[in-house]
Specification:
By secondary structure, the protein is an alpha+beta fold. It contains four helices and seven strands; from the N terminus they run H-E-E-H-E-H-E-E-H-E-E. The protein has one domain.
Length: about 140
């Protein structure tokens, strides 16, 4: 990514697919999702975050390294007692490979940012019951 504006545009121009039943949920930054609200209510949580460990600092690394990083992230979530469902970030333009992640149920902003920083991510996606999903930058901008 060449600059902060391009980076932000890339995050905004992405569909965040959540592996929910009976069918996947398509989330976009700034667009409220009643289907996500139902998922949060069903799981008795107010907050969630989409996090990934893939491609630290938006630099593509080998798939085996990404898989190992993601396994470490999921292990960390399990140790911390979080529940999650699979997620996938897929850019509108197809210029960047889709990135697996996790929609973490009950994860608040501070915990999501710590996890994003730990796994060298620029941003995480936050959502709250009744609100639009938003980006939260892991580093000060």
């Amino acid at each position: 990514m060449s600059d902060a504006t391009d980076l932000e545009r890339a995050y905004v121009e992405t569909i965040y697919w959540v592996d929910a039943l009976p069918e996947p949920i398509a989330l976009r930054i700034g667009e409220h999702s009643r289907v996500l609200d139902r998922l949060l209510v069903q799981n008795a949580v107010q907050d969630c975050a989409i996090v990934t460990a893939w491609n630290p600092h938006s630099e593509q690394v080998t798939s085996w390294r990404n898989v190992a990083r993601q396994a470490s992230l999921l292990r960390s979530l399990r140790i911390q007692g979080y529940r999650w469902v699979g997620a996938l970030g897929e850019g509108d333009d197809g210029a960047w490979p889709a990135e697996p992640g996790a929609l973490v149920l009950g994860m608040r902003k501070d915990a999501a940012l710590r996890l994003g920083r730990r796994f060298a991510q620029h941003a995480v996606v936050l959502a709250k019951l009744g609100c639009k999903p938003a980006l939260a930058w892991c580093a000060r901008r």
